[in-house]
Amino acid sequence: MRQTPTGDTGATLDTDVCVIGAGPAGLALTLMLLRSGLRVTLVERSTALRREFHGEILQPGGQRILDELGVLAGATARGAARLRGFQVLERERVLLDIDYGRLRAPYDHLLALPQPHLLEELLAACRELPGFTLLEGHRIAALLQKRPDSPCTGAVVNGPDRVPVTVRAQVVVGADGRFSKTRALAGIDAGRRDSFAHDVVWFSVHAPGQATGQVRVHRGEGSAVLVHDTHPDRLRIGWTLPHGGWRGAVRRGIEDIRWELAEVLPQYADLVHEQITSMADLTLLDVFASHAGEWVRDGLVLLGDSAHTHGPIGAQGINLALQDAAALHPVLVGALADGEPTARRLAPYQDRRAPAAAAVHRMQVMQARSLFGGGGPAAAFLRARAAAVVTRTPIGAKITRKVAHGHDPAGVRTDLFPVLHVNRSL
Ligand SMILES: Cc1cc2nc3c(=O)[nH]c(=O)nc-3n(C[C@H](O)[C@H](O)[C@H](O)COP(=O)(O)OP(=O)(O)OC[C@H]3O[C@@H](n4cnc5c(N)ncnc54)[C@H](O)[C@@H]3O)c2cc1C
Hints:
Elements: E1 3-5, E2 11-14, E3 17-20, H1 24-35, E4 40-44, E5 57-58, H2 60-68, H3 72-77, E6 81-83, E7 85-90, E8 93-99, E9 110-112, H4 115-127, E10 132-136, E11 139-143, E12 154-158, E13 164-168, E14 171-174, H5 181-185, E15 192-193, E16 198-206, E17 215-220, E18 223-230, E19 234-242, H6 245-252, H7 254-264, H8 269-275, E20 283-285, E21 289-291, E22 296-297, E23 300-302, E24 308-309, H9 317-337, H10 343-372, H11 376-392, H12 394-405
Parallel strand pairs: 2-13, 3-4, 3-14, 4-10, 7-17, 14-23
Antiparallel strand pairs: 1-2, 5-9, 6-9, 7-8, 11-12, 12-13, 15-21, 16-19, 16-20, 17-18, 18-19, 21-24, 22-23
Helix pairs in contact: 1-4, 1-9, 2-9, 7-8, 9-10, 11-12
Bound molecules: flavin-adenine dinucleotide (FAD).
Protein name: FAD-binding monooxygenase
GO molecular function, one term: FAD binding
InterPro entries: FAD-bd, FAD/NAD-bd_sf, PheA/TfdB_FAD_monoxygenase
């Protein structure tokens, strides 16, 4: 890495790829590129991976990618809970049982893996490799482009002291999440779709001895509460509220919220009353979906949530982010080896992954309808029939495989890990 101090205007770094955002997508891609011999500068706005809560259910497809990268065992050793599958319950009666035990081992379960454990393990693996530069506490401020329609040649990122650092790169990867600044700076529309009628309020309680080994969705009249075990000896709870319902809940105050929660989850009422004492114990997830029309431009790629965002139903976001990284890796390595990181060369990544993201969106819309739908006795009968099919038949096993591994799952191209000659034009 060359570093050129430039006085008041900060430093200039030269790298092959500048990845914005050290979430699952950005870190996994960084590790793959480093192992292929590329230089990567990773820019992350938070420090010490202290990010807001971001969910932790990891599907088998994502587990497989982490395993292929050799980081799954280390991440789970930091603490994780193994879960057998998803269950939907109505008044303690199991309506739907998606049993991952029907899948092929070792990827025959879900993992509740706290994101810091996953991210720290990926970061530790990156730190072992040459060519890695981490700019923590830095935010993207601008893309380096002569004109808005000319190729991207890097990014300007601002540190905690607001001193800019210019990162010159052959490609900038926007992996900065659902409110991606990289995407906004490129003038790419997020393609937001308000497909879901509910937001989710997340919290967790210490609950030793109360593990269920499942992700359970307790269905009530027009609402649902999700509960799963998490590390260490805790239950993670997601309470769904109609869009806009949070403002009313805040007005009513924490005491009222505790009573409402106790009503939908009577079995955990004591834990909620003891441990949820202020609004600061709750995190609101504004649930929406998005799908950007353009994921690749000359010298620029969008990855993970910045390209497509999903609702929380079926826990697909981390899975998709990791699979995106695995699909982008060979495309990027090939394009850089030829010194041609153009939209045309990067397009196979979008061509492969956009259908996978679109398939998840379609599935989530259907799942939301069946989870929250009313519709009277006829609709309830049809829902029960559909649930019986998923629970008991081979079609159900096929659906479970799709949910667990995704549409066209990408594996890690470990054959590209030996150091590769790169045509460096910088
Ligand atoms: C509350 C909640 C619960 C969820 N539960 C689940 C679940 O159980 N299972 C599941 O699979 N998915 C879940 N998701 C979705 C999942 O977290 C995301 O799909 C996944 O993290 C996407 O990974 P990513 O790397 O693309 O983006 P992110 O994980 O969002 O990472 C983006 C990174 O970019 C950084 N960043 C943002 N802006 C800038 C900037 N301007 N400059 C520099 N860095 C920046 C952020 O700090 C962050 O580290 C949940 C999401 C939320 C919010």
